[in-house]
Amino acid sequence: xxxxxxxxxxxxxxxxxxxxxxxxxxxxxxxxxxxxxxxxxxxxxxxxxxxxxxxxxxxxxxxxxxxxxxxxxxxxxxxxxxxxxxxxxxxxxxxxxxxxx
Length: 101
Hints:
This protein is mainly alpha-helical.
């Protein structure tokens, strides 16, 4: 099987399993899961689609995303995501990219 055709969603699940087995805290795993699953929902694709350009475009889209958008219990607001939240998404994606290597 060509590795570049593996869906990102499968790789995210494997990455989160690796994080659990490395002994990361449940809170860290939960944060990684939320951020990576949001990437999968908004971008998806395969390993071949996971490029620096795609990640940059995703982070730009996050800048206009509303707080709590898509949350099952909390209604979204007109307020956009904070720069800290967007940076955290970038850090998690960087960690995921390093794991892929």
